[in-house]
Amino acid sequence: MTHDVDVPAGTVLRLAAGEWWQQPRTQTTTGLTVTVVAVYRQVVGGRVWMQGHTCAAGECGGAWCFEGQVAVVAVQRNR
Description:
It contains one helix and six strands. It is mainly beta. It has one domain. The protein has a six-stranded antiparallel beta sheet with strand order 1-4-5-6-2-3.
């Protein structure tokens, strides 16, 4: 199913604990700020895969330094 999760690259998302997962079955216990690189529009279990940066302004030197699942409601709330 495709939802309206179109998020432009460069958008900053502030995710609360429990709104993102680095592993599909491991819910997080801390908040995180991510600058979006890409959000995949295919929703599975109320979540989308996202790539982005948690470093300051791409300091990591990579195309992205964060990849994980994010709750669709959190993405929509942050837009």
